[in-house]
């Protein structure tokens, strides 16, 4: 085991997701450290794995029965070498310090890859919004922000959405933060268009993922046209990945939630996607309803935590995991590779287990890590920040053009960095190296702080 990993395991025991994320980066950057001793001399990795600040707080709130509920809130302010802390907020019962540290660590590299001035952070709570009324969600968000507000600011830390945090939650948190600070400033991104939000932020992660896939396929003189695609998740990222796949002539045939997945052999078209959006975003229902409505689709239930649920066992050309971490395991990876999958593009953060990633990398298929291929979301958050600083808005077309350009630059930077350090065509190593060098050089320049 590497020395860094040993330090991390000793100092942060019981945080397997964080260990997994660190191990992957440590392996990738080894040749960089060997070639440039300054990174070891300046203890860059040792410093990168230690959050600059870790905030944990009580969130007490009243449910609709006037009963007091208590949750735990967090913000991990990981690294501010490149700019103010930037990253999403996750509301999910599985949230604890280890998950948020892995996400904040990944975010630091991802944000570096966008080329925009953003450091890395992540926050959230073990609050479960499922089954809660709008007023309960509002009271929770207000209580959460009552504490978080003192730690954030538009030049300090700018949170956004993630699992369980979409337009509704950002609205409630923004309202609370504005009241506390008495300022209308861009302290959150993903705001509604019309009150500080950027066009295209909602679509950006899923669209950016598919643009990145387009770039990878183009290297092989291929495209998404007529490609059969399997997608997991049915939230923000999955919905917009499906939308862009359809737009580019591909055929998405699956979508899922934490209860199960649907397989529609005829393909999910624009009308069916509208149904999914209404089901998930307005009615907050279960994906099973899709199969009740469309006879072309079958529904398969999955057990909680099952990573070999069968979705990845369906034969397809491209796979886009867009739900959550470690949702695609070893057997899934073997099945995908055995079935001749051409491309795996990560929409979620770290959706492949370490074992699955190893199998996929060895197979040599096109494989992009989330920190590169889902960076379109945070990049567009960066674009929202620019508009807020300037006090003006850009058109959807303008933002989409910038998003495409950023995704194509990230793609090229990953390939270049991978090749420079002996990992030709390995996007995982390329993303880690390119992100690492950018953050590391800034840390050295800024001294021991
Ligand atoms: P949403 O909350 O909108 O959707 C999450 C989806 O994943 C839902 O379908 C949910 O099912 C499913 N899901 C969540 N947790 C689990 C689980 N433990 N097991 C199985 N399914 C699960 O979140 P997003 O679409 O925003 O986020 C999806 C992924 O993309 C996350 O990894 C996130 O970190 C990443 N990401 C998001 C960005 C963004 O801009 N939103 C940017 C970059 C990355 P159910 O409805 O049953 O809960
Ligand atoms: O994982 C991610 O990149 C996000 N959830 C989006 C972060 C952001 O600040 O837009």
Could you list some keywords that capture this structure?
globular; Rossmann fold; 5-stranded mixed sheet; 449 residues; alpha/beta; single chain; 17 helices; binds NADPH dihydro-nicotinamide-adenine-dinucleotide phosphate; 5-stranded parallel sheet
Question: Which helices and strands occur, and which strands form pairs?
Answer:
Layout: H1 3-11, H2 16-35, H3 38-41, H4 44-48, E1 53-62, E2 68-79, E3 85-91, H5 97-114, E4 120-125, H6 134-148, E5 157-160, H7 167-181, H8 201-219, E6 228-231, H9 236-247, E7 251-252, E8 254-257, E9 260-264, H10 270-282, H11 288-293, E10 297-301, E11 318-320, H12 330-338, E12 343-345, H13 354-363, E13 366-368, H14 370-373, H15 375-390, H16 396-420, H17 427-445
Parallel strand pairs: 3-4, 3-5, 6-7, 6-11, 11-12, 12-13
Antiparallel strand pairs: 1-2, 2-4, 8-9, 9-10
């Amino acid at each position: 085991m590497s020395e860094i990993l040993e330090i991390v395991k000793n100092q942060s025991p019981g945080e397997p997701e964080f260990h997994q994320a660190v191990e992957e980066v440590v392996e990738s950057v080894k040749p960089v450290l060997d070639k440039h001793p300054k990174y070891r001399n300046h203890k860059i990795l040792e410093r990168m794995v230690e959050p600059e600040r870790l905030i944990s707080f009580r969130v007490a709130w009243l449910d609709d029965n006037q009963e007091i509920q208590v949750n735990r809130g967090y913000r991990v302010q990981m690294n501010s070498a490149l700019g103010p802390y930037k990253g999403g907020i996750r509301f999910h019962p599985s949230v604890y310090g280890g998950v948020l540290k892995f996400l904040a660590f990944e975010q630091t590299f991802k944000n570096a890859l966008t080329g925009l001035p953003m450091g890395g952070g992540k926050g959230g709570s073990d609050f479960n919004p499922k089954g809660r009324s709008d007023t309960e969600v509002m009271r929770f968000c207000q209580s959460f922000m009552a504490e978080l507000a003192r730690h954030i600011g538009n030049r300090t830390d700018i949170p956004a959405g993630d699992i369980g945090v979409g337009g509704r939650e950002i609205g409630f948190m923004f309202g609370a933060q504005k009241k506390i600070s008495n300022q209308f400033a861009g302290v959150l991104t993903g705001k509604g268009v019309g009150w500080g939000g950027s066009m295209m932020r909602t679509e950006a992660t899923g669209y950016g993922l598919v643009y990145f896939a387009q770039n990878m396929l183009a290297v092989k003189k291929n495209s998404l046209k007529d490609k059969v695609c399997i997608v997991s998740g049915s939230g923000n990222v999955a919905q917009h990945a499906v939308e862009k796949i359809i737009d580019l002539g591909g055929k998405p045939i699956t979508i899922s939630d934490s209860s199960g997945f649907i397989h529609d052999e005829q393909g999910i078209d624009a009308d069916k996607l509208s149904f999914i959006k209404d089901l998930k975003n307005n009615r907050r229902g279960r994906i099973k309803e899709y199969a009740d409505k469309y006879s072309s689709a079958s529904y398969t239930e999955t057990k909680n935590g099952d990573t070999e649920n069968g979705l990845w066992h369906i034969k397809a050309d491209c796979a886009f995991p867009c739900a959550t971490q470690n949702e695609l395991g070893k057997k899934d990876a073997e099945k995908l590779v055995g079935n001749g999958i051409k491309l795996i593009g990560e929409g979620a953060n770290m959706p492949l287990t370490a074992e699955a990633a190893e199998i996929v990398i060895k197979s040599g298929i096109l494989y992009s890590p989330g920190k590169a291929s889902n960076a379109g979301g945070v990049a567009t958050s960066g674009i929202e920040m620019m508009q807020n600083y300037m006090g003006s808005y850009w058109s959807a077309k303008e933002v989409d053009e910038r998003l495409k350009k950023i995704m194509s630059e990230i793609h090229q930077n990953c390939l270049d960095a991978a090749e420079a350090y002996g990992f030709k065509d390995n996007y995982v190593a390329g993303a880690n190296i390119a992100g690492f060098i950018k953050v590391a050089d800034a840390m050295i320049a800024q001294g021991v702080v």
